[in-house]
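Section: Multi-chain targets

For targets with more than one molecule, the full set of components is provided together so that the structure can be written out for the assembly as a whole rather than chain by chain. Components appear in the order listed by the source. The example entry contains two components.
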Amino acid sequence: MGNSNWTQLWLDYDKKGCDANKEVKVTFEGFDKADRVIASAVKELTKGLLGKEREIVLFKDESVAAEGYKLFSQDRKVLVKASDANGALYGVFALIRAEACSKDLASLDEGEMPSNPLRMTNHWDNMDGSIERGYSGQSFFFENNDIVIGERTVDYARFMASVGINGVVINNVNVKGAATYLITDRFFDKVQKMQEIFADYGIKLYLSLNFAAPIELGGLEVCDPLDEDVIAWWKEKAKEVFTRLPGFGGFLVKADSEGRPGPFTYGRTQADGANMLGDIVAPYGGIIIWRCFVYNCTQDWRDYKTDRARAGYDYFKDLDGAYHDNVILQIKNGPMDFQIREPISPLLGGLTKTNQMLEVQIAQEYTGHQIDLCYLMPMFKEVLDFHTHCCEGKDTVADVVSGRTMGNKLAGMAAVINTGNDYNWTGNYLAAANTYGFGRLAFNTELTSEEIAREWVRMSFGLEKAEEDKLVDMLLRSREIYEKYTSPLGIGWMVTPNVHYGPSVDGYEYSRWGTYHRADHLGIGVDRTDKGTGYAQQYYEPNASMYNDPATCPEELLLFFHHIPYTYKLKTGKTLIQHIYDSHFEGEAEAEELAKTWDSLEGKVPQEVFNLVKHRFEMQLYNAKEWRDQVNSYFFRKSGIADEKGREIY
Amino acid sequence: MGNSNWTQLWLDYDKKGCDANKEVKVTFEGFDKADRVIASAVKELTKGLLGKEREIVLFKDESVAAEGYKLFSQDRKVLVKASDANGALYGVFALIRAEACSKDLASLDEGEMPSNPLRMTNHWDNMDGSIERGYSGQSFFFENNDIVIGERTVDYARFMASVGINGVVINNVNVKGAATYLITDRFFDKVQKMQEIFADYGIKLYLSLNFAAPIELGGLEVCDPLDEDVIAWWKEKAKEVFTRLPGFGGFLVKADSEGRPGPFTYGRTQADGANMLGDIVAPYGGIIIWRCFVYNCTQDWRDYKTDRARAGYDYFKDLDGAYHDNVILQIKNGPMDFQIREPISPLLGGLTKTNQMLEVQIAQEYTGHQIDLCYLMPMFKEVLDFHTHCCEGKDTVADVVSGRTMGNKLAGMAAVINTGNDYNWTGNYLAAANTYGFGRLAFNTELTSEEIAREWVRMSFGLEKAEEDKLVDMLLRSREIYEKYTSPLGIGWMVTPNVHYGPSVDGYEYSRWGTYHRADHLGIGVDRTDKGTGYAQQYYEPNASMYNDPATCPEELLLFFHHIPYTYKLKTGKTLIQHIYDSHFEGEAEAEELAKTWDSLEGKVPQEVFNLVKHRFEMQLYNAKEWRDQVNSYFFRKSGIADEKGREIY
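Its structure, encoded as tokens over all components, is:
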């Protein structure tokens, strides 16, 4: 769109050849063109649709599901049917997408209804402009402890709406310093200005909350959720917030975690904390999103019994059913922390009477920092498709978090997002596939990883089929490749402490973080069976038994659940140690193939994009070699068992 | 002296019971009482001497060596004989020390002449107030990119003079930012003011230099030491510096090291760089102190041939004799970097035609951060007493760096100092033993570790003999204890990267720093023999052969020179692995004894001192346990060999 400070991601209408000044004929059936969201939809059609000879009818049809849409061609018209404005907007974006994906607009007959009611992004942006685990520059929401609002805010909202996001938490879950004051007069006007922009695109704004606000803002001595003064303070605060911020969505809370304050400080339960806040915001239609990332982060590495993986379930399962209706628990996909391979959190579906939201991370904290290519939809699909066996039928994670299992309305998916103020928003141009992909997947969990990848490639690059196939294939293979050259068979970690990029096999082995591989001269892995930490028993049957037995445990998770000798024979017939060697050599070699395939796209993608991504692949190869050689050397030195193929190990 | 912002260290005349307003009768024979240094000596006598009934005669005696002194009692007089003012000042401090050490002033007949002409401290203080590897607070020389001068500056100079220091480099060897401007108009006035204070105590001020100053200050495109414009720029700069800073000592230079610019950038030698600067400052009587800490800090850990330990010798030995007379090379005691145990740098005495200064570190970067007790004089004594075999007789390091071996005048010792603006100057009260000790040892390398420890304990605490013995014994044992619970048999490192406190056995194993232990399933150690990196051959015979053979290599350095199987029998009859287990259990147990012995001194030392040191010991015990358990677990897991005594290993 001619703005030179940031790209237009998958909505680059200039590239597509759109005339921004053309007129598109739009008519309205049942929708009010003055509605803010409908107005945005019309604006987008005007800018983004090529086929201006066509008439677009925004048609209100109460039979369409909430926020869903249908596209239907009729003569020279395209009907965008929806029962609400968000649905109409999503239908318009779907129409633009259909055109970009070269569908025949004359024969459209398709539609989607959102799988999840809540489809959210979580920004870990700090008010000083830094982003915790951000790999794409600084925040575009905050700088110098103030809020920044401008054209980029609008574009951000457009991008999010284009993939169906309807909720955004703008500040880091670790709420400190100035961010504590986001719910005060100091920032109300600017927060309101930002949420007006979001509202134009059907997005609600949420804030992360400092549980200790009654102390830090209110001057109280405690933030005990059962203390009357604390409750009274919150009541006043909620009234103030929802009055000053009409349309405000609610709060995301990280409590009792990694040094953050919470109800445990006062001997209260997580439910005590969440329900108190839930009750406070209920009169205003607000919700409380309560994170379940609670664990002991000062563990003694000598302790083989305490298991961080157990913590979420142990802390929250007993309180199932105790949470109020406007409270939703936000649960990370795995029991640890966004590793390249983890089992599914047993809390998902482990709770059967509590609103649940799935939290994933597209900021590639442990998956390559947006340097290494790692398209995450295959991982997220595995999570969504996992049968929890929490009930007969409708027992997948997708069923649980969408509300289908329990029939609850407060349900959905959230992603810790990978954006920043880099020119291309995501550091690596190709990392935008995850930004796009998460939104699409949250909107429609039935889409395949490939369908999403192909949409994104088409909208972003408009390549010939052969090249498109290459790029889609690169994306689809990337997660497995990253997994191969990093930590083996689900054991995770082995990363450089704090930074979380690059290998350090023992980096977290003797630490306080509860993140161990327990490798010795004979074997590796954590015994999480009924003879070990008992974590496997947190699953329903038959999952519990499956994980409990190395013979039935999925091999990609073998070391997560079992301590296994290096000489153990895997189903391939390879020994464990040989698998470690082979997979690391293969992973590095395949990363080289990725880089070469990218090289073959020179001239097919914009040169600037080509160059910058090529540089990322150079860095990825350096990283992959370090991982390959350090992991292989570590296990060779420790086991004394040589590589059967006699390759170089140091 | 009543100032509440910092202690008086070993010159606490208040505690001693001195009346600061008393008059001491001082007479002068040959000395000018108006001389700035003599005036300081008189001031110190007035404040610090108890026995005011005595007459002190400052007696100029040309037969006393430069900066030396003799104390001689005659009737009710004490004669302080010296041939120069510094000697007289040191004599006065010796008299105060004698009194504090309860010597009979009526029968004094003693003296010292300095072993080393240069006795320097190096401050790694940055102008923002931080101190690189500082564990005692912030800088008292700099804050907010400016110079701070006050009463603390005076006290600092007094303390240094009291132990014989005659040169101080006030800024970090890594010269960046504002520090580059110390040789410009911005700071001349304040530097001059500081060096006037120093001069009152016989101390010359030196500055660390940015080798790239011609670029950063002069606007030139290069800092090539053979470039005419660069030379011309330096000539002008030297003229300006020595004109504006009369009495200025010269420059300390870290070049071509850890990212700092240097002559290598331009294909020049270290001598080209040092000599160019030497020539520039020669007309003003200035000197250039050139650090030899030059090595490849981007090594590939896969490379078993490149050896960081070799670097100093490899870079500097060939240029022996090429350095100009007013250039002196500053050489760290070991070839690596201030580890708890290293062999002596083969460059010391390896050079036989070049001025050399020994650099040690009393900032406890790798020796416990002034949390863990580690009295370093025993280590320094080993260094000084080491026979280099560079010639017949006068071949110890003490001989070499004092100038005795070669008859050179520019020679001496320097310490990276352990002070900061903490109330007690050194973080741990007991760490001041190293501050005191280094000065005393540099002044008189014949003193034993115990003599120095006892002097410091007497002057600092004035304990009864039994308690004094306890504390002296704690100091004397502390280095061996620290060594026992940290890295074994000279291998070094195994510390948490960057921080350098606490264990991380593999922390530097796969890094770029050239710091490896090469442990595998069967053994550990770096082969630095003629079959390995050849480092051992950098020594003169018989040292080279001694180190080359594990049978004759001192066992405390065994793993530095050899890769040794865990089952290797040491001279004690123990296997290597059992030695590792035993020494780590012993080291931790002995650290507990240290803490207990300290507990027994409660009531004998000031309560505040007792409490704070007790807290340090608590931290030391936590550290010692982590070291013990992590090192033992690491080697047990790697070797699979059990502890013969069946103690708990994780």
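Residues 607-639 of chain B form the longest helix (33 residues).
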